[in-house]
Amino acid sequence: MENTFCLFYFIFRAKFSEITFQSIQRALQTLGHPDERQNSAVEVRSELDLRIGAAFTRFQTLRLKKIFPETLADTILSYGSCQFPTLGFVIERFKAIENFVSEQFWKLKVTHIRDDIETEFTCNGSGCSTKEACEALFDVCQQNPEAAITKVTTKPKSKWRPQPLDTVELEKLGSRKLRMNVKEVMKVAEKLYTNGFISYPRTRDKHISLPSLNLRPWWRCRHQTQTGADLRPLCLSGDPTLVRARNTDKAIPIHPPSFTNSLAGAEKAVYELVVRHFLACLSDDARGSETVVDMAMAGEG
């Protein structure tokens, strides 16, 4: 007699992107079965990254060794999908600085003070190309010092909130705003992630899903931050259409899962950068108005 045994394997997956008690507890309470399609997508993406990286690493190493044989004799130039866009920004900025040619120019400036409010008027255009032309215009204005307001134009202005933070954008902001090199920014970010202060810093995702984020601790601690943002409306309702983005690798954008004010130095700088960007993403677009006042003096505006 042949005995047949049927074994059933129940496999569950806990999904979390930051190392915090709340996140891990929530993941364990909402266990789900692995998605074969997502698993296949990850395998395809890993295979593409490996093949593209290997091909471009070999190509650029052999190519550049022929151009710089002494400098790159024993060097391998690896290719990374996140590092190369950042390198492009660095080179673009370097070329802009190298090709910049400074030019002298002069311009007239009129200052009006009333009720301790100072208003500055400047000439239309970028200025005078020669000092003599600017001095001649100044003499004309001195001979006719009376000015008249000719037009007042007010129009609405808005500034879009930023997209959620991914790895490349974190590197760019860290370099531009914190004056830190890319390697240092990522080293600090990974340390913050290990300590549970920010989510996983290596991601290409730009989509925020509010139901997956716990904003209540942020609202409770908002008075301890310098931002003063009121997250109560988001905590109570939530807006699932905050950000629409194409890039998604099923890992949520870089964000702060917990609040802390105990950091210092580079860690504090990078953490505050992530916090401010996160709060800006959750805020409404900045809306205001711009008023332009045209003034004429001695026939010049």
UniProtKB/TrEMBL annotation:
Pfam family, one: Topoisom_bac
Sorted UniProt keywords: DNA-binding, Isomerase, Topoisomerase
GO biological process: DNA recombination; DNA repair; DNA topological change
InterPro entries: Topo_IA, Topo_IA_2, Topo_IA_cen, Topo_IA_cen_sub1, Topo_IA_cen_sub3, Topo_IA_core_domain, Topo_IA_DNA-bd_dom
Major enzyme class: isomerase
Catalyzed reactions per annotation: ATP-independent breakage of single-stranded DNA, followed by passage and rejoining
PROSITE patterns xref list: TOPO_IA_2
GO cellular component: nucleus; RecQ family helicase-topoisomerase III complex
GO molecular function, one term: DNA topoisomerase type I (single strand cut, ATP-independent) activity
Function: Introduces a single-strand break via transesterification at a target site in duplex DNA. Releases the supercoiling and torsional tension of DNA introduced during the DNA replication and transcription by transiently cleaving and rejoining one strand of the DNA duplex. The scissile phosphodiester is attacked by the catalytic tyrosine of the enzyme, resulting in the formation of a DNA-(5'-phosphotyrosyl)-enzyme intermediate and the expulsion of a 3'-OH DNA strand.
UniProt record similarity statement: Belongs to the type IA topoisomerase family.
Protein name from the UniProt record: DNA topoisomerase
Gene name for this UniProt entry: Top3alpha
